[in-house]
Specification:
The structure is a single chain. The chain has 3 domains: 104 residues, no CATH class; 143 residues, no CATH class; 86 residues, no CATH class. Helices cover 22% and strands 36% of the residues. The chain has 8 helices and 26 strands. The strands form 6 sheets. Strands 2, 4, 5, 9, 11, 13, 14 and 15 form an 8-stranded mixed beta sheet that branches. The protein has a 6-stranded antiparallel beta sheet with strand order 8-7-6-3-10-12, with no helix packed on it. Strands 1-26-16-17 form a 4-stranded mixed beta sheet. Helix 1 packs across helix 3, helix 2 packs across helix 3 and helix 2 crosses helix 8.
Length: 374
């Protein structure tokens, strides 16, 4: 990634992103300081001076208690940001969330989905402070901005037939609207506006995680994606990360209960043993012997089932101590692609974001988004 091609073309960066904020909600409340306008698919528009509360009702919507013959609606501000103040009984953001753009409410199943249609660069401003501390070095923030933009474009290419491009959670990358967008974030995004990481003229799958604590990981070992630009590289830069080393102690009964809550049928656990490792030393397979048989899990699936905050990475050793299992590990996250704490250290030692991205995504180049395949 040694070249930044500045090719004139129509703006790709001004396009909209469709970001799923809520799913399966029974109540969505939206307000704006100057009121909101709600447009129905038949072209009818309704104006509300304050907030509008949307609920599902037998395949249709209700707006402030009045049923309308529509299964979708678009909500726009009459001035200022839109604020989602409540999303009940669903998955996604439930605390107040201030966003730009517009909101689309959809009846899906027995609940509501809420999608934010927002300008790409405004979306990136909502991702950067949610995924990296705004207090970090400007070059690290720039690297995060470019990676977030690239990931968004990749997902949009992948999900053209879907009703949304990305989810506003760790399922994709965390998006918090206007929250945390300070001057440093603005500068990081604006100074890299319209720049993405590319391979063969297309945006890459720009993976990132907190702390590698050793070599980064091949994507093939985590997601079965054998991508030439997501190969492991040495990363001795993140030793100051808070989760460079960690320890977790789980009671066997708690582990059994967690598996069952996740729908995994296990009996009384007798042993838990990693037996396959990646070249970087991370657990790729582990064996659980229990009273009903044997369970083989991928390392990342084990983390997902037990909880990413409980088992921060797949780089761990296991020791049984009576009715407890002790995990002694290093790193946080899947360790594929950009190591955020590594980027922080490199930036503090004078490396620009271009060099940081070239290191973690070998064989790629920086391109203007307007020149990339869509």
């Amino acid at each position: 990634m040694t070249l930044l091609l500045l090719l004139p073309a129509s703006s790709f960066a001004d396009d909209l992103m469709r970001v799923l904020l809520l799913q399966d909600a029974q109540r969505v409340e939206v307000f704006s300081e100057r009121g909101v306008a709600v447009q129905l698919p038949n072209g009818e528009a309704r104006v509300f001076a304050g907030a509008v509360v949307v609920r599902p009702s037998a395949g249709s919507l209700t707006l402030n208690g009045e049923r309308v013959p529509a299964e979708s609606a678009t909500i726009r501000s009459r001035g200022g940001d839109l604020v989602v103040t409540n999303g009940g009984n669903g998955t996604g953001e439930s605390k107040p969330l201030s966003v730009g753009g517009s909101l689309k409410v959809l009846v899906r199943g027995g609940g509501l989905s809420l999608v934010n249609d927002v300008d790409l660069e405004e979306y990136i401003k909502g991702v950067v402070p949610a995924e990296m501390s705004p207090s970090w070095h400007p070059e690290a923030l720039k690297a995060q901005a470019v990676v977030a933009r690239t990931y968004a474009l990749y997902q949009r290419m992948l999900n053209k037939s879907r009703e949304y491009d990305l989810v506003a959670t760790v399922q994709d990358q965390v998006y918090q609207g206007r929250h945390g967008v300070d001057q440093r974030v603005q500068e990081a995004v604006e100074s890299t506006r319209g720049i993405a990481v590319a391979y063969q003229n297309a945006p890459i799958y720009a993976a990132f995680s907190s702390t590698a604590a050793g070599p980064t990981e091949d994507a093939a070992n985590v997601w079965s994606k054998d991508l030439p630009y997501l190969k492991g590289v040495d990363c001795p830069f993140d030793v100051n990360a808070p989760r460079y080393q960690w320890r977790a102690v789980l009671k066997v009964q708690e582990l059994e209960a967690t598996f069952r809550r996740q729908g995994v049928d296990v009996g009384a656990i007798a042993s838990l043993t990693p037996f396959a490792y990646s070249r970087a030393g991370r657990v790729t397979r582990l064996r659980i012997l229990h009273s009903r048989g044997e369970l083989i899990l991928r390392g990342e699936d084990f983390r997902r089932l037990i909880g990413y905050s409980v088992i921060p990475s797949t780089q761990f050793d296991v020791e049984s101590m009576g009715w407890e299992i002790v995990f002694s590990g290093r790193g946080s996250g899947h360790a594929v692609g950009l190591c955020q704490w590594g980027a922080k250290e490199l930036a503090e030692h004078g490396y620009p974001y271009t060099t940081i991205l070239a290191y973690y995504f070998p064989g790629t180049e920086l391109r203007r988004t307007s020149s990339l395949s869509r």
